[in-house]
Amino acid sequence: MVDLDIRTDDFGRLMCTLSDGNVTATATASNIPDAAADLLSAVDQAALNGIGECFWLRTSGVFRWLLRREQDSARLVVLWSAGTVTGWEHVFGAECDWHSLQRMIRQQIDRYEVSLGRPGSARANVRDV
Question: Kind and range of the H or E element at 120?
């Protein structure tokens, strides 16, 4: 089962710790709050079109999030690139239940926004397709 935890790290970046069984990975973004909004948009894209993606920017590179939905199943992949010469490196990949994944992402972003004193907005857009 995929689990994720979104929070701010010690450097003020948005951080998501992803796990699936014994596999754990971390993705971070300097482009707050755009990164959180972009991840929600990727979830919405996957809900409507079957595929969604977003990019979390850092000064040293970029994390690319890919979500693929096929009926009630989901595949989540996170890649990292430090530049065009190095290409994309696989950071995390897992298959899970679509409804659980999209609900978890929305709840984590809501929790993160509320911790910053902003009203959570992710639940208002839940599309349990």
Answer: none
Residue 89's Cα: distance from chain center in Å? 16
Are 21 and 3 within 8 A, CB to CB?
no
DSSP summary character for residue 127: -
Q: Please check whether residue 106 is in contact with residue 126, taking contact to mean a CB–CB distance below 8 angstroms.
A: yes
Locate all alpha helices (DSSP H) within the chain, ordered by sequence: 34-49, 98-115
How far, in Å, are 22, 76, 89, 91, 114 from residue 110 at the CA level? 26, 20, 29, 24, 6
Please write the tens of the pLDDT for every residue from 11-40: 889 999 999 999 999 999 998 889 999 999
Q: How many CA atoms lie within 13 A of 90 on its CB side?
A: 6
Place of tokens 């929070």: 7
